[in-house]
Known about the structure:
The protein contains 2 helices and 4 strands. By secondary structure, it is an alpha+beta fold. The protein has a single domain, classed as 3-Layer(aba) Sandwich (Rossmann fold), CATH 3.40.50.10610. It has a 4-stranded mixed β-sheet, with helices on one face.
Amino acid sequence: MVLGPFKPGPGAAADDETDQLSLMVIKGIKDTLLKSNTQFTVPADDTKGSDFYLDGYIEDYGSKGRFAQLSIDGEIGLRETGERIFIFQTSVKIDLKTQKPETTAYQIGVAVAHFIGSRA
């Protein structure tokens, strides 16, 4: 599976923080898929030998005082045809006093990978 970065959507700024959250989501997906027994694997060279792609957006990220909202959505499809085979969406509220947004983003990536694996 080719993993692309989660791009900022309309409710997320295109900045270093959003880029870091995107990287952590991808890391969570990649780490989990590498450990699982599923047809969705991540080749060492992401551009070769993969039949699937994953594309996504950080639709919303922002904080109001103690809490931040992180919403992502994405799709998995066939590289050859572009046909979508899975669509996913999630949104979480982060308590900034007790949680790190990067850790939450990684956990979202793990959950997305488990979702992928459960449907393979």
